[in-house]
Amino acid sequence: MIQSMGTDHHVLVLAGGLSYERDVSLRSGRRVVDALRGAGVDTDLRDADATLLPHLAADPPDAVVIALHGATGEDGSLRGVLDLCGVPYVGCDAQTSRLAWDKPSAKSVLRSLDIPTPDWVALPHDRFSELGAVAVLDRIVSRLGLPLMVKPAQGGSGLGASVVRDAAALPAAMVSCFAYDSTALVERYVAGTDIAVSIVDLGSGPQALPPVEIVPVNGVYDYAARYTAGLTTWHAPARLPADVSEAVSSVALAAHRALGLRDLSRVDLIVDPSGAPHVLEVNVSPGMTETSLLPLAVQAGGLDFGKLLAGLVGQAAGRGAA
């Protein structure tokens, strides 16, 4: 049964932070606040800065919604601090957040359970330099082939990510990636349809919301395509045959469970021309902006965004602090 929030309960939404995704996080946070207030929940918005811990000690909320993207909201550190403060929050715990945040580690777990994910290699900047860039890149192309997807091992919103179709473009892609993270994830590029499946659990087990199909104008779902109006078209639900849609949802649920997540997540996949899904990454703090995928999935599922969030925060408050 969904734990509802009483009128005397108070929710704190954390947004902003100091990551590259600060602006997106603030937009997510404001939308979450508006949705919860629309559902009758007393809600405030606050940045995760030096004033946060004194505020939590003086006026602890009944539950926290983490609308922070990037490392602050997704690497488990903030969740660990909230645990120390005895404050419950929506979403997975610190340990599982750390696992999902590190893409190579998460992909290793998925692969160990036969959940499909593209072949990859994780390359720290130091090893890249020590072993010789040219030799390493030649071996990557020989092993994984072309095209390739290069992206930060830890990061989101498409920052530092690029598709490499020509070996000559790979060095520049690596340099761009290393600007956002000290480790690059280089994986085999799978052509197909970009799909996002949002997972929610309101107390009766994780459920997949309708898949959302992503069609970027330039063919790559990068930062600009995600957050600039007119650069991407979304179809919710996705234009997939029923059996493929069912397979996509099943794989997304399997990924959510494999990583030990709770409450909500978003699984990003590619569906290849044969209809087979491949998991790219799993997000524990999905975007909540006007162009974000989880709210689109909620709407496609015929659910009320504010009531869904109210159910999640009520559930977190009822669960209590770690």
From TrEMBL:
The entry's keywords: ATP-binding, Cell shape, Cell wall biogenesis/degradation, Cytoplasm, Ligase, Magnesium, Manganese, Metal-binding, Nucleotide-binding, Peptidoglycan synthesis
Keyword Nucleotide-binding: yes
One Pfam family cited in the UniProt record for this chain: Dala_Dala_lig_C
Keyword Repeat: no
InterPro entries membership: ATP-grasp, ATP_grasp_subdomain_1, D_ala_D_ala, Dala_Dala_lig_C, Dala_Dala_lig_N, PreATP-grasp_dom_sf
PANTHER family named in the record: D-ALANINE--D-ALANINE LIGASE, D-ALANINE--D-ALANINE LIGASE B
Molecular-function annotations in GO: ATP binding; D-alanine-D-alanine ligase activity; metal ion binding
Binding, Mg(2+) 1: 268, 281
GO biological process: cell wall organization; peptidoglycan biosynthetic process; regulation of cell shape
Record family assignment: Belongs to the D-alanine--D-alanine ligase family.
EC number: 6.3.2.4
Gene Ontology CC entries for this record: cytoplasm
Name this polypeptide is given: D-alanine--D-alanine ligase
Organism field: Spirilliplanes yamanashiensis
Binding-site list for Mg(2+) 2: 281, 283
Cofactor requirements of the protein: Mg(2+); Mn(2+)
HAMAP family from the UniProt entry: Dala_Dala_lig
Cofactor binding note of this UniProt entry: Binds 2 magnesium or manganese ions per subunit.
Domain ATP-grasp: 107-314
Catalytic activity: 2 D-alanine + ATP = D-alanyl-D-alanine + ADP + phosphate + H(+)
Pathway stated in the Swiss-Prot or TrEMBL entry: Cell wall biogenesis; peptidoglycan biosynthesis
Location(s), subcellular: Cytoplasm
Catalytic residues as annotated in Swiss-Prot or TrEMBL: 21, 157, 292
Enzyme class: ligase
NCBIfam families: PRK01372.1 (NF002378)
The protein's role, per its UniProt record: Cell wall formation.
